[in-house]
Amino acid sequence: MNFPVADFHCDVLSKLLVQPKLNFQGSESNQLDVTYERLKASGAVLQTFAVYIPEKLNGSIEPILESIDLFYEQVLTCPDMMLIRTQSDLAECLSAGKIGALLSLEGVDGLQGRMSFLRLLYRLGVRAAGLTWNHANWAADGVMEPRGGGLTAQGKTFVAECDKLGILVDVSHLSERAFWDVADLASKTIIASHSNAKTLLNHPRNLTDDQIKAIIALQGLIGITYVPWFVAEGDQVTVDDVLRHVDHVGGLGGEQHIMLGSDFDGIDKYVNGLTHPGEVYRLREALLKRYSEEQTKRFLSGNALTFLTANLPE
Predict the structure, then answer these.
(1) What predicted TM-score, i.e. pTM, was given to this entire model?
(2) Quick check: helix, strand or coil at residue 46?
(3) Cβ contacts of residue 103 below 8 Å, gap of 6+?
(4) Across residues 82-103, what is the average pLDDT?
């Protein structure tokens, strides 16, 4: 049975932005977790590339546009990579055996509250957007903002514009209050691209059971992430620890709502044996020890592909 892999979050564009000598199409010896060769070798069918702007560069539209240019120049120039903007793009990509490249925005600081900028980014291919990183901005409070505020008036306008355009709203990194604001406002569904279960590890970036149930009720998706400090305590975090979060979300009724959100290239410590796309087979093997082939296939890519087929613009 074929086990294609879809990953809803990596930060390779951020590394390419701040380290211009790095090359997505280069050899595995470079400083990137996610490379073209590794994606091809791993059985990837879809990779979401986040536009994350480090705080020292954040606040204007320029580094966002530079990151998207890197996406076009380094990722989309690879012969087997294909930009995914619509349902038909995804169908064509899967039929052709290529690797879909989805573009997302992690933090909207640089949009400066301008919906015109959001519309332009949509035209450039952005199909998912998280309002914040960990701190506050013009749109919302992030999980590390001490006051724990929700969406601003401009943030509510942003969510409405995303719904209108067909941009998925990503609730990973939002404060809990902002999460519930989005859940109440979104006329369409939401995703948490890279978050785990707070019941298993009480980290601010993880989701409470009520949040997980809300995403499930909205027919959204939760990307189980490999960030070690979101998975388990201690220095030796294992693939089996990752599976505990799969088990937990599934136990809350989320079996059809689980996907993967590695956060490769956004971390400098790793789950043991899970350091780049070429090692995701270890997660597959662990899943197969306790789940059926069909369930494992859904977790690795099936749920994500079904979701995008239904929720991308036509």
Answers:
(1) 0.97
(2) strand
(3) 48, 49, 51, 68, 71, 83, 124, 125, 126, 127, 128
(4) 98
